[in-house]
Amino acid sequence: MKENQLAHRKEEKTLGDECQELLLSLPKERGWVTLPLYQYQGFWCPTPEVLQAIMAFQRHFQARDSDIVVASSPKCGTTWLKALIFAVVNRYRFDIETHPLVTSKSHKLVPFFDLDLYANNQVPDFSSFFEPRLFATRPYFFSFLGYNQRVQLFIAPSEAFDRYCMPRHGCIWSILGSHFGLLERLKRPNSVLFFKYEDMKIDIVCHLKTLTSFIDYSFTEEEERNSVIEDVAKLCSFETMKKLEINKTGMFVMNMENKYLFRKAAVGDWVNYFTPEMEERMSKLIEESLVAQA
Q1: pLDDT digits over 123-178, tens only?
Q2: Which of 51, 106, 165, 287 could tie 45 with a disulfide, CB 3.0–4.6 Å?
Q3: What is the bridge-based pairing of β-strands 134-137 and 68-71?
Q4: CA gyration radius for the chain?
């Protein structure tokens, strides 16, 4: 039996009665890297354990106006954005030379609600969290096409792509539009901020200014004169983080090694994975989904 299947069996044994009962009523599909996927509240959850964590989060979490939540799909610069958020918010607490990002993974410093805080039947105690509290989450039914060389797929990449594009699976662009952000951005422009990875790569200093202004942690004129923005950008850069020993060892989720979180950091590398036909199909799907949300 494959390692992921064994892990799935083990997860099921740790589920509470409420979650196990709910699973019986939910639509499910054969998973890509886990078995199976469950549809819950319009999203596809990768494991029963994640579903249980989501349920616990919805029941127990008490949000604060000052909370900062990083919400991103895999392979969209999550590790980088977590590092940037942590660095700018805590820039008065730590020196660059002894910064926690040198000795701790950004995923530990900005934990996921479902994969970390509420995982394994936990109800976290936030009393030790500094303000503002930093969290992270994912928009579910995400694509693992970019992981196919590092994580074992239970279906072929071509089939995964086909299923990703099927309406019943809830295209990620529709989810982002209707559930996850675009509408919320219109309703609450002071509470939701979108960044594009490609734009951040072009001008990280400008985006750091936008980010700090949005979360009310703007850089002072003195900090700008002393190149603090550039220091933060360098501390959190792909080149710096990839060289750190802490990011070369250990495991992330779904038995993926941490070192694979740092690959090329190249814009446009998708051309090496998509055929021209896939590119045309995906571009049309994205355009139709976003126009529908507009």
Answers
A1: 999 999 999 999 999 865 444 443 434 455 566 778 778 877 775 555 555 555 55
A2: 51
A3: parallel
A4: 20
CA distance 244 to 223: 26
Tokens of 203: 């001008």
Q: How many CA atoms lie within 13 A of 123 on its CB side?
A: 7
Measured CA to CA in angstroms, residue 290 lies from 71, 171, 182, 190, 259 at distances of 18, 11, 9, 22, 34
| Rama region for 67: left / alpha / beta (φ>0; ψ in -120 to 50; rest) | beta
3-state class percentages of the chain: helix first, strand second, coil last, to nearest 5: 50, 5, 40
User: Which letter does DSSP use for residue 251 in this model?
Assistant: B
State how far the Cα of 260 lies from the Cα of 242, in Å rounded to an integer. Answer: 10
Whether residue 40 contacts residue 54, with contact meaning beta carbons closer than 8 Å, is answered with yes
What span, in angstroms and rounded, lies between the C-alpha atoms of 215 and 233? 17
Residue type present at position 184: E
pTM reported for the whole predicted model = 0.82
pLDDT, tens digit (0-9, with 9 covering 90-100), for 234-276: 999 988 988 888 888 777 766 677 777 777 777 888 888 888 9
CA-to-CA distance for 39 and 49, rounded, in angstroms?
Answer: 13
Amino acid in the structure at residue 280 = E
Cβ-based neighbours of 272, under 8 Å, separated by 6 or more: none
